Amino acid sequence: MAKLTSWVDVSGDSDFSIYNIPFGIFSNNSTTPRVGTAIGDQILDLAAVAKLGHFDDLNMDKNVFSRPVLNDFIALGKPATKRVRKRIQKLLSDKKSPLIEKPRIFIPRQKGKMHMPVSVGDYTDFYSSIEHATNVGKMFRDPENALLPNWRHIPVGYHGRASSIVIDGTPIYRPKGQVLPKGADDPQFKATERLDFELEMGFIIGKNSQLGTPVTTDRAEDYIFGLVLFNDWSARDIQKWEYIPLGPFLGKNFASAVSPWVVTLEALEEFKVYGPKQTPKVLPYLRFKGPKNYNLHLEVAIKPQGGKETIISRSNFKYMYWNMCQQLAHHTCNGCDVKVGDIMASGTISGNEATSFGSMLELAWAGTRPLTLDDGSTRIFVNDNDTVTLRGYGEKNGTRVGFGKVSNKIKPAR
Ligand code: CA
């Protein structure tokens, strides 16, 4: 990779280095929601860059930068979006860049309001961490046979709900629902007492596939625009009572939250690694060539009301048993089509140490091992007024590419 430096001030620990160039939707007092990129502590207004003519020779519809979601930009296709990213990199690294003279097209990130990056058509959630699936199997079923027989053959997933996917900063109201209290014969309707986060990554579909035509693992990356942090909020007591026989429903669909900046697959190329060995050998349509996992450091923090945050988990996206190419190949193997803006989430990303588990359910082992926060208070699940934050980044040879954060505060049930 060619060594690049930006003339914009970027600190060494910034997620938004010149190697990143993510895409997001921002607004401020003087602009409507539109497409921007993040560089250091700044947002670069790409609608303004387009207006100045810097994309004129790229032979594309420049109006896509003025839209309130990324869908039309993404739909231009990878050849176009890659060229835009390269052009922005050049404009931000060139010592004689014409943008140096245009400080007003930069907005401090603290002053920009971020919006949902895409209009999400469909949302699918996988269950692709073997450590997570094993932990849940041990707690809820059989400690000896924790994994169900299909798990090593199928990237298990379910269709979620797109309407309740929200952006970083959105408050989450504690959901109510039916639960079966321990030892009781009959269910009750009440606010969940087992509110949980799930540390996940989500990938955003970058190209429509055709109904009836599978996307192979070889071609899957053409259909993936980029990734976001994904917190799949869950209510364990509601989930436990409702999920047999048809799976997750109201224990899941009250909210999932994403980070605002979509980091492209191109920006993550440097962090590719091989995933865990898959045994037994998977069916031919799930086989793939080359490294398809990503070495991305992930962490979860809880901040009580008025207090300091405590990091309660450190995990890594590289632990995933099933990779995104396999997930997409499986999702479409029956001919199911995918559309630009769809989100596919990884499933909870747990490592094999107790400090790397990706949910409270696992960290506090179904309530049996309370976690102690730095302020001395304990948690078995998430309390009202707690703020939960996910962060993630890759770092290699002094190059850092990150996602920023997705953070939500829990409000009492309504
Ligand atoms: Ca999930």
Q: TL;DR?
A:
The protein is of the alpha+beta class and 414 residues long.
Structure, explained:
- The protein is α+β, with helices and mostly antiparallel strands and 414 residues long.
- The chain has 2 domains: 24-115, SH3 type barrels; 123-411, Fumarylacetoacetase-like, C-terminal domain (Fumarylacetoacetate hydrolase, domain 2, Alpha-Beta Complex), CATH 3.90.850.
- The protein is 15% helix and 28% strand.
- The strands form 7 sheets. Strands 6, 7, 8, 13, 14, 16, 17 and 22 form an 8-stranded mixed β-sheet that branches. It has a 5-stranded antiparallel β-sheet with strand order 4-3-2-1-5.
- The mean pLDDT is 97.
- The structure holds calcium ion.
- The site of calcium ion (CA) has 6 residues, from loops.
Q: Which features does this protein show?
A:
single chain, alpha+beta, 2 domains, 8 helices, 414 residues, Fumarylacetoacetate hydrolase, domain 2, 28% strand, binds calcium ion, eight-stranded mixed sheet, SH3 type barrels, globular
Q: Which helices and strands appear, and what pairs or packs with what?
A:
Elements: E1 24-28, E2 31-39, E3 42-45, H1 46-51, H2 71-75, H3 78-93, E4 106-108, E5 113-115, E6 123-126, H4 130-140, E7 157-159, E8 165-167, E9 172-173, E10 176-179, E11 188-191, E12 195-196, E13 199-205, E14 224-231, E15 234-235, H5 236-242, E16 256-258, E17 263-264, H6 265-268, E18 272-273, E19 293-294, E20 297-303, E21 310-316, H7 324-332, E22 343-345, H8 360-363, E23 371-372, E24 378-379, E25 387-396, E26 399-411
Parallel strand pairs: 6-22, 8-16, 9-26
Antiparallel strand pairs: 1-2, 1-5, 2-3, 3-4, 6-7, 10-11, 12-15, 13-14, 13-22, 14-16, 14-17, 18-19, 20-21, 20-25, 23-24, 25-26
Calcium ion binds next to loops.
